[in-house]
Amino acid sequence: MPWIIDVKMHLESMGISNTINENNDCSTQDKARAQVFLRKHIDEMLRFEYLDVTDPSILWNHLKERFDHEKEVILPNARDEWRTLRFQDFKKVNEYNSALFRICSQLKYCGHDVTDEDMLEKTYSTFHASNITLMQQYRMQRFTKYSELNACLLVAEQNNELLMKNHESRPTGSVALPKANAINVYGPRNSTRGRGRGRGRRRGRGFGRCQFNRNQNFNSSRGRGNSYNRGRGQKRNNYHSPQRNNSQPQEKAKVARHDAGTSQKSDATCYRCGSTGHL
User: Fold this and answer.
1) Is residue 179, in this structure, part of any structural domain at all?
2) Domain check: are 83 and 157 in the same one?
3) Alpha-carbon distances, residue 86 vs 25, 82, 117, 203, 223 (angstroms)
4) 57 and 103 share a domain?
5) Rounded Cα–Cα distance for residues 87 and 128 (Å)
6) 41 and 7 Cβ atoms separated by less than 8 Å
7) Nearest Cα to Cα of residue 220 among 246, 254, 249
8) Domain around 45
9) CA 18, CA 90: separation in Å to the nearest integer?
10) What's the pLDDT band for 234 if we cut at 50, 70, 90?
């Protein structure tokens, strides 16, 4: 059928379409042009079989007698495909349209016309059972052409694919996690830690020595560390080591007796204040 339609259109465009009709009065030149065109566009075996035929109308009739029985062969198959055609068996609307129009073309070629009402009813009646409500909504639109229903089906299919794509990218109930800011999370913590470390270095310098040398004799320590340890560092020492607060008076008494005994034995001047009587 497509070959017959194409040949007729080409001959019409060349102005020699009457050459394939019986009892035509076309010129010999037009018949020769039509004969060359037909022989060029038929199968090679047919070309050798009809090698002695020079009239295009005779060649056309021979081809028609040989292949015109295809209508009787195509018609039962086309009817069966039309009967079993269902819209729910196709995943895409375009796939359904391709099958629908192919079957309709075969039926028309065999002499059975298919109207828009037939195509609309075939589509409505073959919706999936879960889409009954959607089918009723399409029926209420009262389409008169299948092209109108086809446009609505294509738009609905595209919207459905978009919804499914968005749902799969982020399922229901899932929320995107906020971006973490390293400055906000760790900044105050680091700054507090820095300030605490700074205070420890300034105030707890002697205290750290005391903790390190808590089991050693405090009289052996000399210089600034010992006096500083007895001053500002002593407060933090009391907080962290309450057990040592009880021994502070005894240690002070030992230091006082040591200073008193030393002052009696030596008259050297103090290396710090310059007075005599103590080291």
Assistant:
1) no
2) yes
3) 51, 9, 16, 89, 104
4) no
5) 8
6) yes
7) 254
8) 2-68
9) 44
10) very low
